[in-house]
Amino acid sequence: MKVLVTGGMGYIGSHTCIQLLEAGFTPVIFDNLYNSKATVNERIRLVTGQTVEFIQGDIRDKALLVKTLEQHNIDAVIHFAGLKAVGESVEKPLEYYDNNVNGTLVLVDAMRDAGVTRLVFSSSATVYGDPHTVPITEDFPTSATNPYGRSKLMVEECLTDFQLANPDWSITLLRYFNPVGSHPSGQLGEDPQGIPNNLMPFVSQVAVGRREYLSVFGDDYPTPDGTGVRDYIHVMDLADGHIAALQRVGIQSGLHIFNLGTGNGSSVLDMVKAFEQASGKSIAYKIAPRRPGDIAECWADPAKAYAELGWKATRTLQQMTEDTWRWQSENPKGYPE
Ligand code: NAD
Ligand code: UD1
Questions:
Q1: 81 CA to middle of ligand 1, Å?
Q2: Which residues are listed as membrane-spanning (predicted)?
Q3: Helices (H), the chain
Q4: Which residues are paired to 257 by β-bridges?
Q5: Fewer beta carbons within 10 angstroms: which end of the chain, N or C?
Q6: Pocket of ligand 1 (CB under 6 A)
Q7: One-character DSSP codes across 194-236
Q8: How many domains does the chain have?
Q9: pLDDT reading at 121 higher than 90
Q10: Res. 300 pLDDT band, cuts 50 70 90
Q11: Atom of ligand 2 at shortest range from CA of 125
Q12: Distance (Å) from CA 200 to ligand 2 centroid
């Protein structure tokens, strides 16, 4: 099976390409390198011994997409490409709706022209808004509190309507919880540009001395230690979830929705402690005010993915932090140019 991976040079896409190769699929990467570097592909080759074809292009370029889908005889698309920084989305809503919503519509239109009818989409637990309780099942009500979240929700709704009108299509919406960790080789990992927005990249940059201390956003939440609780999932488990989805429902027509999480919640201070153990470094932190828009706790009920995809997360918090540390300490400045 040949799989077009939009955003395949990015954090989750690159790890998924490795697992696709391991599972016998042929990935083809389509990425505009807005938030990634082409040297990622060199690392994929180092780890797998295989070369992945790369097309540098934008998902809003329909002609290039149609040409790519046809020339490469693509059977399915995994769609990671998009913008993902919540704070930035508040400042630049147009860019977020254009890349994430318009970009997905152009991609689906191109797939229709090229006769490719299988799509797996990167959604997010952000579509559950502030959940009324935890753990979260797929039938919880959805809502959004910022343009990034709204763009994911809009895409989910567009794809749901489209699948209803085109019942022969297979469309899978994967709602990721909090991806962390890196490939165990230390060759690939998360390489955010500028100051990291997310917890784990920030913690690991404190550990290598790129940042002075971590600001812990709030210690007065109604959680066991007062800090926010999330469902951190190893990026390799997440990658495996895509393979399971392609194999199990990617060939069945219908709309398929799955949470990809572990079902366990960890607090900010749990993560700091786990990282200190993995790295042997002490992580300086200061308690800071709550970050606007943050919720107290969020974790998945991953039972549906296990029942229907035969997939569950198996990697531990220790593996998540050890792998992050290996990547960060061996590549303190991220990928080379
Ligand atoms: P990333 O920024 O590392 O990867 C996204 C890739 O898409 C980058 O390589 C970027 O260059 C590319 N891209 C962006 N806009 C493009 C465009 N218009 N045309 C072509 N390529 C484009 O992000 P990631 O963490 O790997 O996330 C991948 C997907 O998963 C995103 O859709 C994101 O919203 C979603 N997601 C991520 C998280 C997370 O915490 N990382 C959580 C939930 C959902
Ligand atoms: C963020 C996004 C969410 C996205 C998710 C995917 C926001 C508001 N939300 O969620 O849309 O789907 O990533 O991974 O950005 N924290 C600190 N200090 C920091 C950074 C984070 O204390 O410097 C805390 C946060 O308050 C939170 C936890 O760490 O309790 C995790 O934060 P983060 O990694 O940003 O993820 P989310 O907020 O869960």
A1: 5
A2: none
A3: 11-22, 39-48, 62-71, 86-91, 93-96, 103-114, 147-165, 199-207, 235-248, 268-279, 303-309, 317-330
A4: 173
A5: C
A6: 6-7, 9-13, 31-36, 58-60, 80-84, 99, 103, 122, 124, 176, 179
A7: SS--SHHHHHHHHHTTSSS-EEEE-S-SSSTTSS-EE-EEEHH
A8: 1
A9: yes
A10: very high
A11: 12
A12: 9
Q: In which residue are the tokens 């011994």 written?
A: 49
Q: Is 148 a catalytic residue?
A: yes
Whole-model pTM?
0.98
Give the distance, in angstroms, between the CA of residue 32 and the centroid of all CA atoms in the same chain: 17
Range of the domain at 12: 2-181+232-262+299-314
Ligand 2 contact, 202 CB (< 6 A): yes
**For 283-296, how does the pLDDT look when each residue is reduced to its tens digit (9 = 90+)?**
999 999 999 989 99
Q: How is residue 109 written in tokens?
A: 């239109």
The answer as to whether 47 is a domain residue is yes
The one-letter code for the residue type at 97 is Y
Mean pLDDT of the 65-90 span: 97
Catalytic residue among 97, 128, 148, 335: 148
Pick the residue whose CA is nearest to atom 43 on ligand 1.
Answer: 124
- With respect to residue 287, please indicate whether it lies within any of the assigned structural domains: no
Q: How far is CA 212 from CA 204, 276, 288, in A?
A: 11, 15, 14
Q: What is the CATH number of the domain that holds 167?
A: 3.40.50.720
Nearest atom in ligand 1 to 35's CA: 11
Closest-CA residue, ligand 2 atom 4, reads 126
User: 197 CA to middle of ligand 2, Å?
Assistant: 7
Separation of 69 CA from ligand 1 center, angstroms? Answer: 20
Q: Dihedral (C-alpha) 274, 17, 303, 261: value to the nearest 10 degrees?
A: 30
According to DSSP, residue 125 is labeled G
Atom of ligand 2 nearest to the CA of 228: 30
Residue 104 belongs to a domain: yes
